[in-house]
Write a structure and sequence with these properties.
Blueprint lengths: L2 H71 L3 E6 L4 E4 L1 H7 L3 H4 L4 H12 L4 E2 L5 E10 L5 E10 L1 H47 L4 H28 L6 E4 L1 H11 L1 H6 L2 E7 L6 E4 H17 L5 E9 L9 E8 L6 H4 L17 H11 L3 E7 L3 E9 L36
Parallel strand pairs: 7-9
Antiparallel strand pairs: 1-2, 1-5, 3-4, 4-5, 6-8, 9-10, 10-12, 11-12
Helix pairs in contact: 5-6, 6-11, 7-9, 9-11
């Protein structure tokens, strides 16, 4: 092989080497380009995945915040326990109703919490020391497969429902009593009139025999007392508040204080009258509302045998308490107070803690206030005093229709005497 042939062979080898290198470089460039494209795709997919995760986390946080806001805005207490019966969540209403901080509930066994509530407050529905009545309900929490994942306990504030039930029961009792009293009063008053007539005749015939005349006078006094009792029963079962008119609130209150001034001065009682100047006139039966206030004032006087303070106030009822504009009248004393266990019965007919009286006074007060479409509540602390809070609609009201309890009394009028002096005869005992 000549030098020329050797050079040509080397050139061929070099050419093939460069060709192979070019092919390898092309393949490598293609692989690099493919890898770059794939990396770009992966970066894009990762960015999209991250964006989707961030959106999902944002939605989850929004949902969690929404659920939390809903739970915290509920008036119903909510306790959530996990599958091990451990409390993992509760809302503010639970803390408010039970009076137990949320931190003390978390981590405890739900069954243990419920048992402690029952032990402290009795059987369901439970009446708490605050006066709130609650009812408990519980249910299991399951997932899509039906597996148990926890427990849900709801604490319902049923105070208003219980109050409505009590009012309904009270009304039913009144209906039955109204029919009975109407018939009995009619049957008794006729012979009572005859007894009073014969007693007055005896007094005249026995004017020369004082010792016998005294017996006739005792008969007359007893007949008059029984007649007052019948009148009070009729007022209670048929509260007639038909003489409606606009009344100046402050003038009405001061008239009551004037009527009760003698009883208060003799008992060394300091009286304060507080009337908000923004309180408007009130649409009511002035005579009946004066009787209501007078009865409450005299009750307060009797609750302070050693003297004390009495406040008669008037203001607009808070909006959160009264849905419609209402005037709030309050009679407060610093007397002996009413035991907590008796406060729910003070408006019941024939219930009294006094040694005398029939127990109709506050029952009639309650009936007259209801006849004005109002309500009256008692707030008392034994040893510190009592407040009777009455709320009457500010505007015009319609005279309530007669219910079944008054059906037996239709056509029979109830005679009431105007109040001239704050004596026992003009107030409801």
């Amino acid at each position: 092989m000549t030098a020329r042939d050797a050079e040509a062979s080397n050139n061929d080898l070099l050419t093939r080497a460069f060709h192979d290198f070019d092919q390898a470089a092309t393949v490598l460039q293609q692989s690099y380009d493919a890898l770059t494209t794939r990396l770009q795709q992966m970066d894009l997919e990762l960015a999209q995945t991250n964006a989707s995760l961030r959106e999902h986390l944002r939605e989850t946080e929004e949902m969690r915040a929404h659920v939390t806001a809903v739970l915290e805005s509920l008036d119903t207490g909510v306790i959530v326990a996990d599958s091990q019966d451990s409390v993992v969540r509760c809302n503010h209403a639970t803390e408010r109703l039970l009076g137990v901080p949320q931190a003390r509930l978390r981590g405890r066994r739900a069954t243990e919490v419920l048992e402690e509530i029952r032990k402290d407050h009795g059987e369901y529905p439970l009446v708490l020391p605050t006066g709130v009545t609650i009812a408990l309900s519980q249910s299991d929490l399951t997932d899509e497969t039906g597996s148990l994942i926890g427990k849900l306990v709801l604490i319902h504030d049923v105070t208003h429902i219980r109050q409505l039930e009590d009012r309904l029961q009270r009304r039913n009792r009144l209906e039955a009593m109204g029919q009975m009293v109407g018939n009995i009063a009619h049957e008794i008053r006729n012979p009572l009139g005859s007894v009073e007539l014969f007693a007055s005749m005896l007094r005249k015939d026995l004017r020369d025999q004082p010792h016998l005349r005294t017996y006739a006078e005792h008969i007359s006094v007893a007949v008059q007392a029984m007649d007052r009792l019948l009148s009070n029963l009729l007022v209670y079962t048929r509260p007639d508040c038909s003489r409606l008119a606009w009344q100046d609130t402050e003038s009405l209150i001061r008239e009551v204080l004037t009527l009760a001034s003698h009883a208060m001065s003799s008992a060394s009682i300091v009286v304060r009258c507080e009337v908000d100047p923004r309180v408007p006139k009130i649409w009511c039966d002035g005579g009946k509302i004066k009787q209501v206030l007078l009865n409450l004032v005299l009750n307060a006087v009797q609750a302070m045998p050693e003297g004390g303070s009495l406040i008669l106030s008037a203001c607009m009822a808070p909006e959160q308490i009264s849905e419609l504009p209402a005037i709030q009248l309050t009679v407060s004393d610093t007397g002996t107070g009413i035991p907590l266990e008796l406060q729910s019965r003070v408006f019941d007919p024939f219930f009294t803690t006094k040694d005398h009286g029939t127990g109709l006074g506050l029952a009639i007060v309650h009936a007259l206030v209801e006849a004005h479409h109002g309500r009256i509540d008692v707030e008392s602390r034994p040893g510190q005093g009592t407040s009777f809070v009455m709320r009457l609609p500010q505007g015009s009201i319609q005279q309530p229709t007669l219910s079944a309890r008054n059906a037996a009394l239709v056509g029979r009028s109830v005679q009431t005497r105007p109040i001239e002096n704050a004596t026992e005869e003009e107030t409801y005992e």
